[in-house]
Specification:
This protein is an alpha/beta fold. It is built from eleven helices and eleven strands. It has two domains: 155 residues, Rossmann fold; 131 residues, Rossmann fold (3-Layer(aba) Sandwich), CATH 3.40.50. It binds phosphoric acid mono(formamide)ester (CP). Its EC number is 2.1.3.11.
Length: 316
């Protein structure tokens, strides 16, 4: 593996999930693989899980870890090619990427969608520029359109809860939020579910259609109750409108997930990538129920990162 920015960078999802589960059983089995190697974790945006789980994953493999909060602590980056830098930006991303490559054997970078310029976001302007100038493998720690380490952790979590029918029904349901939220987690989950052996349904209010690029083979409905029927896994996530780019649109129905709504499911397991707005997106009663997998997902972030770093280290 030379980079990890989407599901397209893996060759066999089942094998990767099984390898991650083996690492979960024996996290230090490859504790010398990363000896003498350094991973740089670069954050242009906030993080709890990605930051800590990636650090732990790298440490389990014996790597040195350097973290740069580029959105706060570093020089203010310039993202325009050919810019005359006589304004507030101090360092061009091309120089930052090249210099960081001198210090690190692998670089992870988090660069959210700005939700202001749709074209720039869907073209992954920041990640693409960084990868153009970095000279070492790059891992997405969540980009403008995708969050592959989260999705792999979600696949690992689903695999740990087999169902007694040929394929589980997995439902991605939109949830309310007070802020404008990017589409990366939802896009990515959709991509990875379509690569998995599951029946996958997406439900959201009208106006919240995701980019069709990521939902091509999924069943999509605006009827949440219909979608939730017989679901084995319900993944809750907010995203802003893609059509009215970045806007929070008014909704007629209440889309917050509650125990009452789950009554039509097959005692569904509940998933959310976190952080979650409790009692806005999902009620406490659901999040704190015995069917909630939210902390298992967070734990599996370690092993999704660890298996990806291991695959890259093996090819350095
Ligand atoms: N789920 C997730 O990526 O969490 P953080 O934003 O805290 O890293």
């Amino acid at each position: 593996m030379k980079q990890f920015i989407s599901v397209k960078d893996i060759t066999n999802l089942n094998e990767l999930v099984n390898e991650a589960l083996a690492l979960k059983k024996d996290p230090f089995a490859f504790e010398t693989l990363g000896k003498g190697k350094t991973i740089g974790l670069v954050f242009l945006n906030s993080s709890l899980r990605t930051r800590m789980s990636s650090q732990k994953a790298a440490q389990n493999l014996g790597m040195e870890v350097m973290v740069l909060n580029a959105g706060q602590d570093a020089w203010n980056w310039e993202f325009e090619e050919g810019a005359i830098m006589n304004g507030t930006t101090v360092e061009h991303i091309k120089d930052a990427a090249r210099v960081l490559s001198e210090y690190c054997d692998i670089i992870g970078i988090r660069c959210f969608a700005g939700l202001k310029n749709k074209e720039e976001d869907i073209q992954e302007k920041t990640l693409s520029l960084f990868m153009k100038y970095a000279t070492v493998p790059v891992v997405s720690l969540e980009s403008a359109t995708l969050h592959p380490l989260q999705s792999l952790a979600d696949c690992i979590t689903i695999a740990e809860h087999p169902v007694t029918k040929p394929k589980p029904k997995v439902v991605l349901t939109w949830a309310p939020h007070i802020k404008s939220i990017p589409h990366a987690v939802a896009n990515s989950f959709s991509e990875w579910m379509q690569a998995s052996d599951v029946d996958f349904v997406i439900t959201h209010p009208k106006g919240y259609e995701l980019d069709e690029k990521y939902t091509q083979n999924a069943v999509v409905t605006t009827n949440q109750e219909e979608a939730l029927k017989d679901a084995d896994f319900v993944y809750v996530k907010n995203w802003s409108s893609f059509t009215d780019y970045g806007q929070v649109l008014p909704t007629k129905e209440d889309w917050m997930l509650t125990p009452e709504k789950l009554a039509v499911t097959n005692s569904a397991k509940i998933m959310h990538c976190l952080p979650v707005r409790r009692n806005v997106e999902v009620s406490d009663a659901v999040l704190d129920s015995e069917n909630s997998l939210i902390y298992e997902q967070a734990k599996n972030r370690i092993y999704s990162a660890q298996v990806v770093f291991k695959k890259i280290l093996e090819q350095l």
